[in-house]
Design brief:
The complex is a heterodimer of chains A (404) and B (339).
Chain A: H1 2-23, H2 29-47, E1 60-72, E2 88-103, E3 106-115, E4 125-135, E5 142-150, H3 171-177, E6 183-194, E7 200-210, E8 225-236, E9 241-256, E10 259-274, E11 284-296, E12 307-320, E13 323-333, E14 340-354, E15 357-371, E16 380-393
Antiparallel strand pairs in A: 1-2, 1-16, 2-3, 3-4, 4-5, 5-6, 6-7, 7-8, 8-9, 9-10, 10-11, 11-12, 12-13, 13-14, 14-15, 15-16
Helix pairs in contact in A: 1-2
Chain B: H1 2-24, E1 32-36, H2 39-49, E2 53-57, H3 72-79, E3 83-86, H4 95-102, E4 114-116, H5 152-166, H6 171-190, H7 192-198, H8 200-209, H9 212-218, H10 227-231, E5 239-242, H11 248-254, E6 257-261, H12 272-285, E7 289-292, H13 299-308, E8 311-314, H14 328-338
Parallel strand pairs in B: 1-2, 1-3, 3-4, 5-6, 5-7, 7-8
Helix pairs in contact in B: 2-5, 2-6, 3-4, 5-6, 6-7, 6-8
Classes of the chains: A mainly beta (404), B alpha/beta (339).
């Protein structure tokens, strides 16, 4: 259509121009310039896309697929023990991401997860993984959201399963925040400010949410809120690298025999990323780690720990444009058994055909509930993963902490 | 005591409110703080804004503008900006996350402080079919519009309009600077004499329509030609291969003949079959030059260069993309001299 309009306009103007305008040298420059301007304006108008096609107001929709095949050295069951996960393929998750402006003051996001780590005869689980509204007309540097969201404790807890640099969440996150990390309902405020010179920034986060996390707080029936604070200092080290240092603190209540006990989790994290504009042997490198420390005020605890800690370290290099290789070491004290500690070590290699399709091969060795000091090791679990992650639709930009 | 406190608090509140309104009104801006995504945009903002602006550029000149990491330092910069300038045409997908996290509604798309610099540029290569099977296509067309000097005045006009929205008191200064910048672009492009005779905008239209040289011949005005168009005469019809489809506007302007790209499709690495076809094409068509941006120098482009025997030319694709490309004008000096 645009081409048609352009051709008509061009024909009309060429017809005009072939006569008096350019054919005669005595025509004033003002007339020529007026026609030039008119021509340019018409060309610009003709090049504009139609204003409305009918579906612009629909939310942007993105679909993520996470397909995993695994081979294990012993049987592995899902969370509630109803289905064996080992030695089989599994469409681990399908995620639908919908987002749109709600009005001039807010944007809305819904992320719906469809999972199938259950018996094939049972219905597939559908859950709102995240659903929140963000307010856009706050003072400069401040953002706020309300709804269900991934809490801002540390680095990797904010990522969805398909965004992780490895096939699984690190053990300390599973131990201290929940099997699939911590997603809660509440409100969150972020404030970002530059610090001094360009390239340094401080981000402060405050969150209040239901204390329903079963790992740390009161579970589904809890009426005690939980609170989280996080500070993150970011600095660009040079034109090729940056370092981020963060600390998180979370507090809530657990209820034992109708007594409400304080439960605190303290975290520290760092992220170093190097990515030169031109490859220098490697294309990029990421080193990151997180530390978790828990303190429970629960005098009735017998087997459970009053204090516990865990940590992981991750390193990844990019030897070629599309290839990423890395490894991770996890260690976490088991919260409900004061004599046990879990360790895991693993490696992975990922290949991105494009930013929309990733093929990954991973290996993880886990010493399940092995003794903390001395003694015989517990049962081992060795798993080889083959993972295909794909996305289609309107893919939003990747977050900066994303390891790629 | 209570009444006194309430009255004092009321006065204090009104004072703060008045001060805040005065400070936040556009007329009160001492300097307009501008965050520009690309160095080329930052440079045009400086040229149009003059001493009234403080510009911070988010991407580096040597960086691929498609893949900038939306770091907290960028977010913090945007959170304090009065004006945000991006190229648009879905080139900088990373700005969405930067803007969302910056919490600065004054510079969000649709607000007075937001500028899509490419608005109104006659866009090339708008895809007829939108599918990811065609690679990382840009639905609104090829977004590398700054790589033709002819689009500089349009980018500058959009930036000037943005500056006038957030700082209307200095509109006359911005208009004057815009006119000076556009005039300089056309003079550098065609030479002063030709611009004086026919006007820069008209000549730019002739170039875009592909009728510039026939027009010159018909008017017997070839002797008046100067600037980059004269200096680049040897480039007309020069057959080249590029890594990415980034040079379409440059080739439209200066007559370069980009025969193919090393990428199989936009953003897609070449398969062995594509590489073999490309090498055969380069041989049969006598393509002896491969144009690369600094961030495209890698093992893939190196292999194609060595297998084809073609000369690799690394030219800046942005301001500060090379030592000599310090501003919009020297960027094209460097590109044309390099090729």
């Amino acid at each position: 259509m645009n081409g048609f309009i352009r051709r008509i306009l061009m024909s009309a103007i060429v017809c005009c121009s072939s006569g008096p305008v350019f054919g005669a040298d005595d025509v004033s420059r003002e007339e020529i310039q007026a026609l030039q301007k008119r021509l340019t304006d018409l060309e610009r108008q003709a090049s504009k896309a139609p204003a409305f096609r009918g579906n612009e107001l629909n939310p942007r929709l993105t679909a993520f697929g996470d397909f995993v095949g695994r081979i294990d050295n012993r049987p592995v069951l899902n969370d509630d023990g109803t289905r064996e996960l080992s030695d089989r393929f599994n469409l681990r998750e399908v995620e639908l991401d919908l987002r749109a402006d709600v009005d001039p003051y807010a944007k809305g996001v819904f992320i719906v997860a469809i999972g199938q780590e259950d018996l094939p005869t049972q219905p597939t689980t559908i859950a709102v993984e995240e659903g929140y509204i963000t307010f856009t007309r706050l003072p400069r540097g401040m953002t706020a959201k309300a709804g269900k969201f991934k809490t801002s404790f540390g680095i990797l807890n904010r990522l969805h399963l398909h965004d992780l640099p490895q096939p699984t969440l690190p053990l300390p996150i599973q131990q201290f925040l929940g099997e699939e990390g911590m997603t809660e309902m509440g409100v969150s405020f972020d404030y970002v400010t530059p610090l001094g010179s360009l390239g340094r920034a401080l981000t402060l986060t405050a969150e209040a949410f239901n204390g329903e996390n079963t790992t740390q707080f009161g579970g589904d029936n809890s009426r005690d809120p939980a609170f989280l604070g996080r500070g993150k200092y970011f600095m660009e080290l040079d034109d090729e690298s940056f370092l981020e240092l963060g600390t998180s603190y979370m507090v809530g209540k657990r209820v034992t025999n109708n007594v409400h006990h304080t439960n605190e989790i303290l975290g520290g994290d760092f992220l170093y990323k190097w990515r030169p504009p031109q490859p220098k042997g490697l294309w990029s490198m990421v080193v990151q780690g997180e530390y978790f420390y828990m303190n429970r005020e629960d005098p009735t605890a017998q087997l459970d720990r009053r204090t516990a800690w865990g940590a992981y370290g991750l390193a990844q290099v990019q030897p070629y444009q599309r290839w990423f290789v890395g490894g991770r070491y996890d260690m976490a004290q088991v919260l409900d058994n004061r004599d046990r500690v879990e360790r895991k070590v693993g490696g992975f290699i990922s290949y991105y055909t494009t930013e929309f399709l990733r093929l990954r091969l991973g290996y993880e060795y886990q010493n399940v509930s092995g003794p903390e000091i001395g003694g015989l090791p517990g049962a081992d679990l060795s798993t080889v993963y083959a993972q295909i992650t794909f996305v289609f639709g309107s893919h939003p930009a990747e977050p900066y902490w994303f390891s790629k | 005591m209570g009444q006194w406190t309430i009255a004092a608090l009321s006065r204090l509140f009104i004072s703060i409110l008045t001060a805040w309104m005065a400070l936040s009104s556009p007329a009160a801006l001492a300097e307009v703080r501008v965050a520009a995504t690309l160095p080329v945009l930052g440079d045009i903002v400086r040229q149009v804004g003059g001493q009234h602006v403080v510009v911070q550029t988010l991407a580096k000149g040597t960086e691929d503008p498609h893949y900038v990491i939306p770091r907290p330092s960028l977010i913090a910069t945007v959170s304090r900006a009065d004006l945000f300038v991006e190229m648009g045409l879905q080139l900088e997908l990373w700005t969405e996350r930067v803007l969302e996290s910056a919490g600065n509604s004054a510079v969000n798309p649709g607000a007075a402080g937001h500028v899509y610099a490419s608005a109104g540029v006659p866009v090339l290569e708008v895809p007829e079919k939108l599918t990811r099977a065609e690679g990382d296509i840009h639905p609104s067309g090829n977004p590398h519009v700054w790589l033709s000097p002819l689009n500089g005045p349009i980018l500058a006009a959009n930036i000037a309009a943005g500056l006038k929205r957030v700082d209307p008191e200095r509109a006359a200064d911005y208009d004057r600077n815009l006119e000076a910048f556009s005039g300089k672009v056309y003079d550098r492009m065609f030479g002063k004499a030709l611009v004086e005779k026919f006007g820069g905008e008209f000549l730019a239209g002739e170039v875009r329509r592909g009728t510039f040289h026939s027009f010159l011949a018909s008017k017997k005005a070839g002797d008046l030609l100067g600037g980059w168009m004269k200096e680049s005469a040897a480039l007309r019809g020069l057959r080249v291969v590029s890594y990415h489809k980034a040079w379409s506007y440059l080739s439209q302007t200066f007559g370069l003949d980009v025969r193919n790209t090393i990428e199989e499709k936009p953003g897609i690495q070449p398969s062995a079959a594509h590489r073999d076809r490309l090498l055969a094409q380069m041989k049969s068509e006598g393509v002896r030059v491969i144009i690369l941006a600094p961030f495209e120098v890698n093992t893939i482009s190196g292999r194609v260069a060595s297998m084809s025997g073609a000369r690799t030319v690394v030219v800046p694709a942005n301001v500060n993309g090379a030592a000599g490309a310090a501003d919009f004008f020297s960027l094209f000096d460097e590109i044309l001299a390099g090729i």
